[in-house]
Amino acid sequence: MQKTVLAWNDIEAMVRRLIDRIGDVDRYDLMLVITRGGMVPACLVSEWTGLRNILVAAVMFYTGVGETADRPIFLQFPPDPFLKDRRVLIVDDIWDSGRTIMAVRERVEAAGGHPETAVLHYKPARSMFPDHRPDYFVEETDAWIVYPWEPREEDLEVNS
Fold first, then answer.
1. Potential cystine with 58: which of 16, 27, 51, 75 (Cβ 3.0-4.6 Å)?
2. Cβ 99 vs Cβ 72: under 8 Å
3. Has residue 22 got a pLDDT over 70?
4. For 100-113, how does the pLDDT look when each residue is reduced to its tens digit (9 = 90+)?
5. d(Cα 132, Cα 22) in Å, to the nearest integer?
6. Are strands 30-35 and 3-5 parallel, antiparallel or unpaired?
7. Domain limits at 98?
8. Nearest Cα to 15, choosing from 54, 57, 59, 49?
């Protein structure tokens, strides 16, 4: 599998392209950031567009090493009244299987919100949702993506 290692300037350029694709962010009432990968892209979107109403969705599927849950575990999620009748821009770094972002999207819809999704990378070949795709994305890929905020193997070796 191809591995793509990104630098901070790559992320800045990608977020600028993502903002161009999203267009007028003033149509959104709030941004819902999926932790942890979506935090850096969402912060840049917020800084560069002025979209300041930011909420957090902390979701996990992993219950142990190599073990996943059948359904998402929501560690943190905004209360339904914060989402009802709101246009919500959901931001994450990558749509891989799509499980996380679709779980967040479905929960926003169940609360009466109107979600749209935005990611830097979209992996259609790995997606578990062939009838869905991100509303906005920058690159379509099959590569293993390493973001600059993720610990590198050499960083882990130094700290052990």
1. 75
2. yes
3. yes
4. 999 999 999 999 99
5. 17
6. unpaired
7. 3-158
8. 49
